[in-house]
Design a protein that fits this description.
With about 350 residues, this protein is an alpha/beta fold. It has helices at about 10-25, 50-60, 85-90, 105-115, 130-145, 160-170, 190-195, 210, 230-240, 245-250, 280-300; strands at about 40-45, 65-70, 95-100, 120-125, 150-155, 175-180, 200-205, 220, 255-260, 315, 335, 340. The protein folds into two domains: about 5-130 and about 285-340, Aspartate/ornithine carbamoyltransferase (Rossmann fold); about 130-285, Rossmann fold (3-Layer(aba) Sandwich), CATH 3.40.50.1370. The chain is built from eleven helices and twelve strands. The strands form three sheets. It has a five-stranded parallel sheet with strand order 7-6-5-8-9, covered by helices on one side. Strands 2-1-3-4 form a four-stranded parallel sheet, with helices on both faces. A three-stranded antiparallel sheet has the order 10-11-12, with no helix packed on it. Bound molecules: N-carbamoyl-L-aspartate (NCD).
Length: about 350
């Protein structure tokens, strides 16, 4: 499979080399300006996006390629009931590579199985977001000079925050990483992350941001994911649970960096922006260069990722995760690998 659906579809060596390429692109953009001449990226966004879609589009344009875009389910054949399987086959006839964001967990994986072009997961429900992780890793390496020996605090909505799940999954493969999970009880990290990547890592859980701050090299703030709450009242109760202010940031080390995948709602007060430890706008810039590096890798680098269905067994019924793609996709079997749904990772 030449797609990137999960961050583990890339080896650590490949990730490190993508960061090298992103840095080279940033330093020598003209060297890459016609690398994708004659190639087309299909940006298939079935869920709102500003940064991710625009950064994919800007990335392809700066590589000299062209872009075809779907901006919402409402303006595509998804609104007529077209399956992901059919959409993926159709788009494969028009484009050379596809980036897909979808509210249902596992949709880009289903597309990758049907498409004949590389598929990049640009965020599937509350599940994962591997290109944000590449962006985060690139920013951390550029600011801290390393991806090993770091204490990384994740704060906010660790339950639905897909960027958190993917970044932990990536950091699990680096050396001496300690993770501090900062969230209220209701927004704790899902079991599949705990039993998966976190099981082999040193980690602790707390609900106290101020107490955790002095120990962190990286603070990864997240937005409470309003759109994924079934219970509106619960969202209202939790939405302002953490707000990073300049006063709180005074508790952190002088070289701690603050990241956020953005959009920010009000979990970081604007006053923090002028602190040199606030790196979330630098992170946006790296997002474009990392996506350029990834497009080059998938189109020209002989990427050979794992086959999604290898070793998976089809079982009757649909996944018990209500946000899983098995609930809407016609005739899509629920495949199980190592006791989990292959599309969304839910325990079966
Ligand atoms: C994130 C996402 O879409 O998961 N945003 C992004 O891609 N930069 C984070 C979020 O929406 O909170």
């Amino acid at each position: 499979m030449n797609s990137v659906i999960d961050i583990t579809d890339l080896t650590v060596e490949q990730i490190n080399s993508l960061i090298d390429t992103a840095e080279d692109i940033a330093a020598n953009p003209e060297k890459y300006s016609s690398a994708c001449k004659g190639k087309k990226l299909a940006a298939m966004f079935f869920e709102p996006s500003t940064r991710t879609r625009l950064s994919f589009e800007a990335a392809m344009m700066e590589l000299g390629g062209n872009v075809l875009s779907v901006h919402s389910s409402a303006t595509s054949s998804a609104s007529k009931g077209e399956s992901i399987n059919d959409t993926a086959k159709v788009v494969s006839c028009y484009a050379d590579i596809m980036a897909m964001r979808h509210p249902l967990e596992g949709a880009p994986a289903v597309a990758a199985v049907s498409a004949s072009i590389p598929v990049i997961n640009a965020g599937d429900g509350g599940h994962c977001h591997p290109t944000q992780t590449l962006t985060d890793l690139c920013t951390i390496r550029s600011e801290k000079g390393r991806l090993n020996g770091l204490t990384v605090g994740f704060c906010g909505d660790l339950k639905y925050g897909r960027t958190v799940h993917s970044l932990i999954n990536a950091l699990a493969r680096y050396e001496n990483i300690r993770v501090v999970l900062i969230s209220p009880d209701e927004l704790k990290i899902p079991d599949y992350v705990k039993e998966g990547p976190l099981a082999g890592m040193e980690y602790s859980e707390t609900d106290d941001l101020v107490k955790a701050l002095p120990h962190l090299d990286v603070l990864y703030m997240t937005r409470v994911q309003q759109e994924r709450f079934a219970d509106r009242e619960q969202y209202e109760r939790l939405k302002d649970v953490y707000i990073l202010t300049p006063e709180k940031l005074n508790m952190a080390k002088s070289d701690t960096i603050v990241l956020h995948p953005l959009p920010r709602v009000n979990e970081i007060s604007v006053g923090v922006d002028k602190d040199e430890r606030a790196c979330y706008f630098k992170q946006v810039k790296w997002g474009k260069y990392m996506r350029m590096a990834l497009i080059l890798h998938l189109l020209f680098g002989n990427h050979d990722g794992a086959d999604i269905l290898e070793g998976a067994v089809p079982v009757d019924g649909v996944c018990k995760n209500p946000r899983c793609i098995t609930h809407t996709e016609q005739e899509l079997p629920l495949y199980v690998k190592k006791g989990r749904c292959v599309w969304c990772d839910e325990e079966i």
